[in-house]
UniProtKB/TrEMBL annotation:
Cellular localization per UniProt: Membrane
The protein's name in its UniProt record: MFS transporter
Source organism: Stutzerimonas zhaodongensis
Chain segments annotated as transmembrane: 21-40, 52-74, 81-98, 104-123, 144-165, 171-190, 202-221, 241-262, 274-293, 299-320, 332-350, 356-376
Record carries keyword Thylakoid: no
Molecular function per GO: transmembrane transporter activity
Entry coiled-coil feature ranges: none
Length: 382
C-alpha cells in the first residue's frame, strides 16, 4: 500500500486506478440526481417554471467554477482539489435530499454543478498526465468509467428507492459510497502541482479553441439526444410514450461500449481519423433517425450516434498535452468549459429551431454540425 504522505508518480498503477475509480464515482454522483427529482418536487411546492429555473443552477454552478479548476490545480495540486470537491459534492447531494427550502435547494444545485464541473476538469488533467507519462492511451477508458458510473448511479438509487428506503436514507447511502470510494484510492490522486500557470485566466490559443469548439459539438449532440429524442420518437415514429427513453438509452449504451473498446480503436486510427470517422458515424446515425419510418431503426440511429461520439471528446482532451501554447492544466480547463457549454446550449437551440421550424429540421442541422467534426479533424494529424 502506498503511504498517505508519499507523492505518487503519474505513471504508477495507483494513479491509473485512482483515475478510473474517480471517473466512475463522478458519473455515479451525477446520476443520483435523476431518481431524486420526483421526490424533491413532492417535498417542495413549486411550479414547472420555477423548477426549470432551478435546474439552471446546476449549469451555472459548473460554468462558474470550471474556469477556476486550472488555477486551483496549479496552486494546490490535484489531490486536495479532488478531495475538497468530493466533500462539496457530498454536502450538496445531502442538502438536495433533505432540504425543504427552495433557496437551500438552489444553493445545493449550484454547488452540485460546481463540484462536478471541477471534478470533471481535474480528473481530465490527471488523465492527460497519466497518458503523457505512460505513453499509453487511457482517456477512452476513463471516460467509459464515467459513463458506466452514470448508469450504475441511477440504477443503484432507483433500486434502493424501489426496495422501500426513504429518499434521504437512500441518498445518504449513495453519498457514503462516493466518499468512501474516493478515500480508498485517494493515495493515487496526484498531489504535485500542475506545471506553470499561477494566474486565474489565460487567453485560449487557437488550438485550444478548436478543441473546445469540437467538444461543444459532441456535448451539444448529447444534450439534444437526452432532452429531445423521446419527444421526437413518440411524435414522429409512433413509439409508445412509456418507451420514449429508449432513444437516449441506446445512445448512452453505445457511448459506454464505444469508450471501453476505444483504446485499440484509437491506437489503430490515430487522433485525426478517430475524430473524422466518429463525426461521420454520428451524423449518419442522426440521419437514419430522420429518414426511417420505424422507431426501431431510429433507435439504431441514436445508437450509431453514440458510438460515433464515444471517443471524440477523449482524444480531443488527450491532444491538449501535445500543444505548447498554454499550460496543459489551463488548456484542459478552457476546452472542457467551452465543451460543457454545449450540454446547456444544445437543448435550448434544438427547442428554438423546433419552435420556429420543426424538430426534424433541428436534428438535421445537428447532423450537419457533426459533419463539421470531419473538417476539424484535419488539424490533428499525427
Amino acid at each position: 500500500m502506498i503511504a498517505a504522505n508519499q507523492v505518487v508518480d503519474a505513471a504508477s498503477p495507483a494513479a491509473t486506478r485512482a483515475a478510473r475509480v474517480g471517473f466512475f464515482m463522478a458519473g455515479f454522483g451525477l446520476a443520483i440526481w435523476a431518481p431524486l427529482v420526483p421526490y424533491v418536487r413532492a417535498r417542495i411546492e413549486m411550479s414547472d417554471a420555477v423548477f426549470g429555473t432551478l435546474l439552471l443552477c446546476i449549469g451555472l454552478g459548473s460554468l462558474t467554477w470550471m474556469p477556476l479548476s486550472g488555477l486551483l490545480v496549479a496552486r494546490r495540486g490535484i489531490r486536495p482539489v479532488i478531495l475538497f470537491s468530493v466533500a462539496l459534492l457530498a454536502l450538496s447531494l445531502t442538502g438536495m435530499a433533505l432540504t425543504e427550502s427552495l433557496w437551500i435547494l438552489a444553493l445545493a444545485l449550484f454547488c452540485f454543478g460546481g463540484s462536478l464541473g471541477v471534478i470533471d476538469v481535474v480528473f481530465n488533467i490527471q488523465g492527460v498526465m497519466i497518458e503523457r507519462d505512460t505513453g499509453k492511451r487511457h482517456m477512452s477508458n476513463f471516460h467509459g468509467m464515467f459513463s458506466l458510473g452514470s448508469i450504475c448511479g441511477a440504477l443503484a438509487l432507483t433500486v434502493a428507492l424501489t426496495l422501500g428506503l426513504p429518499p434521504a436514507v437512500g441518498t445518504l447511502l449513495m453519498v457514503a459510497l462516493i466518499v468512501l470510494a474516493n478515500l480508498a484510492v485517494s493515495s493515487g490522486f496526484l498531489r504535485d502541482r500542475a506545471p506553470a500557470g499561477g494566474v486565474a485566466f489565460v487567453r485560449p490559443s487557437a488550438a485550444v479553441l478548436l478543441v473546445g469548439g469540437l467538444c461543444f459539438i459532441v456535448y451539444l449532440a448529447e444534450g439534444a439526444v437526452l432532452d429531445w429524442s423521446a419527444l421526437y420518437l413518440t411524435e414522429t415514429k409512433a413509439l409508445e410514450t412509456a418507451k420514449g427513453g429508449l432513444g437516449y438509452a441506446s445512445f448512452a449504451l453505445m457511448v459506454t461500449v464505444g469508450r471501453f473498446a476505444g483504446g485499440p480503436v484509437v491506437n489503430a486510427l490515430g487522433t485525426a481519423r478517430t475524430i473524422a470517422y466518429g463525426g461521420l458515424l454520428a451524423a449518419v446515425g442522426i440521419a437514419l433517425t430522420l429518414i426511417t419510418a420505424h422507431w426501431g431503426w431510429a433507435l439504431l440511429g441514436y445508437g450509431l450516434c453514440g458510438m460515433g461520439c464515444a471517443n471524440v471528446s477523449p482524444v480531443l482532451i488527450s491532444s491538449l498535452s501535445r500543444q505548447q501554447q498554454m499550460p496543459v492544466n489551463q488548456a484542459i480547463t478552457a476546452a472542457t468549459t467551452i465543451g460543457f457549454a454545449g450540454v446547456l446550449a444544445g437543448p435550448a437551440l434544438i427547442g428554438l429551431i423546433a419552435h420556429f421550424a420543426s424538430l426534424t429540421l433541428a436534428f438535421a442541422l445537428l447532423a450537419v454540425l457533426l459533419m463539421g467534426l470531419v473538417l476539424g479533424s484535419r488539424r490533428f494529424s499525427e
